[in-house]
Amino acid sequence: MKKPPERITTSIPGLDKILEGGFIPGSIILLSGEAGTGKTMLSCQFLWKNIANGMKGLYITLQQLADNILDDVEYIEKDLRSAVEKGTFKIVYIDIQRVKKLVEIVIEYLDEMKADLLVIDSITLFCEVTDKSIEIRYNMIKLMKELKKRNVTAILISEVPIENWSKFGVEEFVADGVILMKAGVDVIGGSPRSLIIKKMRRTNHDMQVHPLEIDSEGIRLTKAK
Ligand SMILES: Nc1ncnc2c1ncn2[C@@H]1O[C@H](COP(=O)(O)OP(=O)(O)OP(=O)(O)O)[C@@H](O)[C@H]1O
Ligand SMILES: [Mg+2]
């Protein structure tokens, strides 16, 4: 029988359990959600734990300044800042004027630090450099190809309008996995925050709404099976 693929921990308590152990190395995950649903926190927590386990991570931010992101994840800020000093973590702000060159810039950083993990916050801004859907798809595929070549495990953050999986309807097809985060009164089951796995290639996952909590100790699923 074929050996099941190894997994990289998501580092979100409860999430690995519903993903057969975590993300498959080299997979590209679209993490979608409206504003304030916890996308940045989940991504930082993912990098933090895996960096502590000996991996190298790169966080590309196109909106918030690097320092602001680190300030927002107070519970792991110290560890992340010390990883920056050690060279196992890099957080880079890319100005909107340079977004057209995002793939080239990302590749340069990935190769320079030999990163295993990548977060792009957000891929929506990268998609917005053009309004032609064929070009959006081309740009996404170009990025995917480069990441796959390097076997980088990536979270691409996607800012979505309510009830959508992605903004342009292209991103979720290119990604290996899609996770949607929600917050607010419309959430089924009455929990103010939740997470749904829409797609995860090579993984037996459910499609239930999983309640989620965020507090000063981080982000976690509360009633994961
Ligand atoms: N210490 C805390 N206790 C409770 N909730 C918190 C705490 N810190 C952050 N949050 C919640 O997490 C949200 C911020 O999460 P995060 O920045 O990861 O969201 P996001 O999805 O990346 O948002 P955006 O799309 O605006 O970038 C806050 O709006 C708040 O609701
Ligand atoms: Mg964010």
How would you describe what is shown here?
The chain has 225 residues and is an alpha/beta fold. The chain has a domain at 25-181: Rossmann fold, CATH 3.40.50.300. 32% of the residues lie in helices and 24% in strands. The protein has seven helices and nine strands, in the order βαβααβαβααβαββββ. A hairpin with a 2-residue loop joins β8 and β9. The relative contact order is 0.21. The site of magnesium ion has 3 residues, from α1.
| Biggest sheet, spatial arrangement of strands | 3-2-4-5-1-6-7-8-9
User: Regions with pLDDT < 50 over 5+ consecutive residues?
Assistant: none
**Distinct small-molecule ligands in the complex:** adenosine-5'-triphosphate, magnesium ion
Shape: globular
The CATH topology of the domain at 25-181 turns out to be: Rossmann fold
First and last CA, distance: 27 Å
Task: Note the main sheet.
Answer: 9 strands, mixed
What Rg is obtained from the alpha carbons, in whole angstroms?
16 Å
Strand content: 15-25%
Q: Order of helices and strands, N to C?
A: EHEHHEHEHHEHEEEE
Secondary structure tally: strands: 9
The CATH class of the domain at 25-181 turns out to be Alpha Beta
CATH architecture assignment name of the domain at 25-181: 3-Layer(aba) Sandwich
Query: What's the CATH H-level homologous superfamily of the domain at 25-181?
Result: P-loop containing nucleotide triphosphate hydrolases
Number of helices: 7
Q: What structural category do the secondary elements indicate?
A: alpha/beta
Mean pLDDT: 92
Helical amount: 25-40%
